């Protein structure tokens, strides 16, 4: 008796099939290959393609039951290391030049991972800011900068010492201390210390000044008898550091160093000021603070040597969890008068309060993991490419983003620790000045750094989407005209800086926009953009002003700018022409289209499988006894091209009692599963019809499958066995296996022929060059012989 005649029971078949997916003959497949309600084998396929019937082993021609040995692996550790290494597979770490399929897959994988990183980065960044910050800053601005004092002016309009004291006595105190309601009732003690009744004043405000020493500058001999004192502009080495002890209850006349105040330098409108000085803290109540300011006013706290006064305080709004660190600055230059400036920094120093904040915290952890991932990735690329790694602009951009991200992570940890310590110290000493100035400064730098990182991260998208001609136009144009632009930039800035210095020297004493070299430089850029005030130039110098303006507009606007545009336009036209004759390295749309067609073909094979099984249920019961035994089932499906293993597996799944016969109830269960699967397929077909693609049967559509390279998916090779057994029963054409092999051979042949043709072209080009050189030498020799002949004729025959 042959092996085909002796078969195990259905229960034994189910057990054996579930334990050894390689033990089947023909085309071994796991037990769930015909499980129409089971889990999906391929997550990339639609729901109707679950548990596909394609083989998981190499294709075979016979249908005999012969065990196959699974492929030996290199061990768990090698699998783990190779899988771990594949996490950092990029186009720079993998050899993808000769494999378009791998190149596309690697590019898509990099792009998807990077887009996830970009989304996380944007969530973290935009989670730290909101439009509420702007409105909070505006409210504080309006209160302290635009409130009118007794003289009719505001902080913005301070021009002398008298204006400063008017501001300090009224608008400043009224803004800091809200001790009555709008109906003039007193605010309860527990609600004191709130600005606008909502913003908690942290600690007490502080007033600090810096002075220069008497006779810190030299008076000319002609004026020494008239001018007895001289006070220079501010410089740290000219600071007045003397202290007076006559004001026992006030600290405003005691000099304190920067280390004592735990201060930092400040870049003002005129110069940079140190963090030291004479400090006077106000109190938590309005009346005592008013007494302090009156005392400072009466005792001439601000003197001729005073060069700057700072007013610092910090408020916190618990409603929106935001701090506003305020610094009002009035500089007193050596020229006399006063120059006001200000800084309002609205920052979120307490990061994690609400549910949204903790979601941002989770995103921050993911962000840190991404940074570690990219650090490893860049390390692998550096190890492989060595110094040539730095030749790519994108690699340098990667390093910049990683460095900025690391700095931001470190500061984030530092800020959390410092804020906690400062708040504890503030709660223990509520009557002391709360110095958040330095912390808010670095928080602002942190915000700036993360903003730059987001900018570079968005720019880096061009690295991944430049996979066709359209996406590379910008980079190709800029790269091709880089040398021309560099030469133009040298010429442009020579002329531009010449006009900058000329404007500064001509109008610097009268026009604010030309008051220093920096202002003059940016003013000329504004003129290019059409933002200028011609009347100021004309008023400063009625002759040279208009001449300067016309010359600048003519040389820079009409000549240089148009030269710049001409360089860009010519290069762009050249790039467009080159790209019109250039074939794409690969088209992402073709890749997706091919994947779509593979999906459609698999869907069609699935439909044909269901139809075959339905026909077998209908026709296999030859004696019409509503009892379908295994031999009837096997013979019908064998004629339809199915292997013994898959026939056995499907029968064993529904033969619940193991009697090798499908009774009426078991057949109904199988039919019900088929109907469910057919409904799912119909939904998929409806979806395909909406997209304008109604697939035919698998027998008709299999010829449409295209494999353009040697790197086809493993699933294609694995699936080829069953497909060949099924498509081989068509009335014409070749089997699917033969078609796949032949198409790949043709692809390899075309690739080889293309290489040969390119080499032949190179040889022909060289031969043509040699022929031209030979003709040129022949022509040169002819000219030499002609000249020799003429000389000989002239010497011997000319009379």
UniProtKB/TrEMBL annotation:
Family in the record: Belongs to the polycystin family.
Polar residues compositional bias, start-end: 699-708, 722-731
Domain EF-hand positions: 608-643
InterPro entries linked: EF-hand-dom_pair, EF_Hand_1_Ca_BS, EF_hand_dom, PKD1_2_channel, PKD_2, Polycystin, Polycystin_dom
Keywords for the protein's UniProt record, in alphabetical order: Calcium, Calcium channel, Calcium transport, Cell membrane, Cell projection, Coiled coil, Cytoplasmic vesicle, Disulfide bond, Glycoprotein, Ion channel, Ion transport, Membrane, Metal-binding, Transmembrane, Transmembrane helix, Transport
Domain of life, per lineage: Eukaryota
Gene Ontology MF terms in the entry: calcium channel activity; calcium ion binding
GO BP terms: detection of mechanical stimulus
Membrane-topology annotation of the record: Multi-pass membrane protein
Disulfide cysteine pairs (residue numbers): 217-230
Name of this protein: Polycystin 2
UniProt entry tagged with the keyword Protein biosynthesis: no
GO cellular component: a single term: plasma membrane
Residue ranges, compositional bias (Basic and acidic residues): 28-43
Residue spans crossing the bilayer: 111-136, 358-376, 396-417, 448-465, 485-507, 547-568
